[in-house]
């Protein structure tokens, strides 16, 4: 959180929008995000995505879904900061006191382009290279004071499919590299034995032969939906001096996901966990500053079809996205500071 002196300064200046700058202390744990992050040639194709989708295949077939795996490149831009956003509050007492919260927000825009894709069972719908497969505008928030339960960050995401998400969480800064947690990409609510459960045939196929995308290098393990996190481990080109960890979850406090009616009926997005690891390397760039790498791991749970384990409810299908990118430019929006009321 910002210190009381800076909070008083922001209150006196009032709310304003300006071009974001890397290292701006007002952004708190978000201060390394401003700028453009990309899969450059030395990191091309480091984005991977897995999603199960309702799908009708051959008549009488046992499989009523298809498992789609994409390899992608991404451009993620953080451009404008909205400072001293006031949330008005009051604490009853004698006398009553104002408890206004100040929020500093950083906008973002995510664009994802497919490199390669495959699905099981094969549908002919996986799509060709250079296909735009995702666009997402949103905001990251830093709550500077009056936090609840230590929650100092939030992410607001809007998805063109008809979803909006609010995730809340805590930031952490520590020396050295992060530990990437294991993730099981198998659906919840079915027998998770690939050898014994034919319903998981699409997962078994990708487990037996992980998806390589366009990577032809010998020894490349490919994307395995059973352990999708493995392509993040050991994926940073250098020695990590310091890591900023940003993790948000839609099940925390007042977080949640809202969807249009069709999505709720067909494949309801019900929960999201998203973790960013911003890693400052000991190695330097052309300007002499540390090279900065961003890795993320995101899991969205999609609920559709009745569970097959004897419990009530729906199967929960993990929709997993991972990537490793490098910061390539500082923000450049061509806009001057813009005071607002």
Number of helices: 3
* CATH architectural type: Beta Barrel
Largest sheet: 14 strands, antiparallel
Low-pLDDT runs of 5+ residues are 335-341
CATH superfamily descriptor: Calycin beta-barrel core domain
Q: What proportion strand?
A: over 45%
Q: Over all CA atoms, what is the radius of gyration? A: 22 Å
Q: Give the N-to-C terminal Cα separation.
A: 24 Å
Helix content: under 10%
Number of domains: 1
Write down the overall mean pLDDT: 92
Coarse structural class: mainly beta
What is the CATH first-level class name? Mainly Beta
Total E-strand runs:
16
Overall geometry comes to globular
* Topology as a string of helices (H) and strands (E): HEEEEEEEEEEHEEHEEEE
CATH fold-level name = Lipocalin
Task: Describe what this molecule looks like in 3D.
- The protein has 341 residues and is mostly beta strands.
- It has a single domain (4-333), classed as Beta Barrel (Lipocalin).
- It contains three helices and 16 strands.
- Strands 1, 2, 3, 4, 7, 8, 9, 10, 11, 12, 13, 14, 15 and 16 form a 14-stranded antiparallel sheet that branches.
- The longest helix is centred in the first third of the chain and has 10 residues, at 4-13.
- It is globular.
């Amino acid at each position: 959180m910002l210190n009381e002196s800076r909070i008083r300064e922001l209150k006196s200046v009032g709310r304003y929008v300006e071009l974001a700058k890397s290292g701006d202390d007002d952004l708190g744990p978000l201060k390394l995000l401003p700028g453009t992050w990309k899969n450059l040639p030395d990191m091309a194709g480091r984005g991977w995505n897995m999603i199960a989708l309702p799908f009708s295949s051959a008549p009488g077939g046992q499989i009523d879904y298809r498992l789609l795996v994409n390899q992608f490149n991404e451009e993620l831009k953080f451009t404008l900061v909205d400072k001293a956003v006031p949330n008005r509050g009051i604490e009853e007492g004698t006398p009553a006191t104002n408890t206004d919260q100040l929020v500093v927000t950083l906008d973002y825009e995510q664009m994802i382009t497919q490199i390669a894709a495959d699905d099981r069972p094969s549908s002919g719908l996986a799509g060709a290279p250079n296909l735009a497969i995702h666009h997402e505008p949103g905001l990251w928030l830093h709550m500077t004071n009056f936090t609840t339960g230590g929650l100092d960050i939030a992410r607001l995401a809007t998805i063109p499919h008809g979803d909006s998400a609010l995730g809340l969480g805590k930031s952490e800064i520590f020396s050295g590299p992060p530990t990437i947690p294991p993730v099981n990409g198998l659906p919840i609510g079915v027998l998770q034995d690939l050898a014994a459960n034919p319903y998981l045939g699409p997962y078994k196929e990708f487990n037996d032969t992980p998806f390589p995308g366009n990577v032809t290098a010998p020894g490349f393990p490919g994307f395995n939906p059973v352990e999708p996190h493995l392509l993040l481990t050991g994926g940073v080109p250098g020695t990590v001096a310091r890591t900023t960890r940003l993790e948000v979850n839609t099940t925390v406090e007042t977080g949640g996901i809202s969807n249009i009616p069709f999505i709720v009926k067909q494949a309801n997005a019900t929960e999201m966990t998203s973790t960013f690891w911003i890693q400052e390397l000991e190695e330097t760039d052309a300007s002499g500053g540390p090279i900065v790498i961003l890795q993320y791991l995101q899991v969205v749970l999609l609920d559709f079809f009745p569970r097959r384990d004897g419990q009530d409810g729906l199967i929960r299908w993990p929709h997993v996205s991972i990537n490793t990118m490098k910061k390539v430019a500082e923000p450049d929006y061509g806009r001057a500071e813009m005071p607002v009321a």
